[in-house]
Specification:
alpha/beta, Rossmann fold, 7-stranded mixed sheet, 5 helices, 29% helix, globular, binds 1-O-pyrophosphono-5-O-phosphono-alpha-D-ribofuranose, binds magnesium ion
């Protein structure tokens, strides 16, 4: 079943207390990738979720850096374009930027204006949702270029931080931790 397949992904997610700072319980997605079969099935689960959406999806958007692990693989399976959102200063040509708060300080996301068509229906993917600031910034960039954000997807949601309340689009998470 889908639940059993998700449980096999969850079993491989690492937990590290007090990383990168005291008090933070870090969830590590990389051990999933050491198991080729489970990693492939994780991509299948994400892809199947997109295929089951009632709105057809024109492109997958992935977030620098760990969203780049999932987004291109999903886009290839779905045979649709992949669009990168990057940390500022990495993309050439005409771009727009959106700054967001981190626990300490801030960061800026950037997208090429030519990456998206008006009314293009996109799904945004990242590895993890914590405070939601990262996903919100990405969704705001896509919306300001006229895209329709059909859904935001993450493998892991840290529910106690209530990040989903910040995200200006429907949010799907495969695995939840309090
Ligand atoms: C991590 C994670 C998410 C984000 C979630 O990215 O990959 O993108 O934090 O946090 P938030 O919901 O509180 O905004 P980070 O920028 O730390 O590193 P990365 O470049 O390795 O993806
Ligand atoms: Mg990230």
């Amino acid at each position: 079943s889908v639940e059993e397949r998700i449980a096999r992904v969850e079993e491989l997610i690492g937990t590290h207390s007090d990383f990168p700072k005291p008090g933070i319980n870090f969830k590590d997605i990389f051990p999933v990738m050491k198991n080729a079969e489970v990693f492939q099935d994780c991509i299948s689960l994400l892809t199947e979720h997109v295929e089951h959406l009632t709105t057809p999806v024109d492109a997958i958007v992935g977030l620098d850096a760990r969203g780049f692990i999932f987004g291109p693989l999903m886009a290839q399976r779905l045979n649709i374009p992949f669009i990168p959102v990057r940390k500022a200063g990495k993309l050439p040509g005409e771009t727009i930027k959106y700054s967001y708060q981190l626990e300490y300080g801030s960061d800026t996301f950037e997208i090429q204006k030519s990456a998206v068509h008006c009314r293009q229906r996109v799904v945004i993917v990242d590895d993890l949702l914590a405070t939601g600031g990262t996903m919100k910034a990405a969704a705001m960039l896509l919306k300001s270029l006229g895209a329709e954000v059909v859904e935001c997807m993450v493998v892991i949601e840290l529910t106690s931080l209530k990040g989903r309340d910040k995200v200006p689009a429907p949010l799907y998470s495969m695995i939840q931790y309090h």
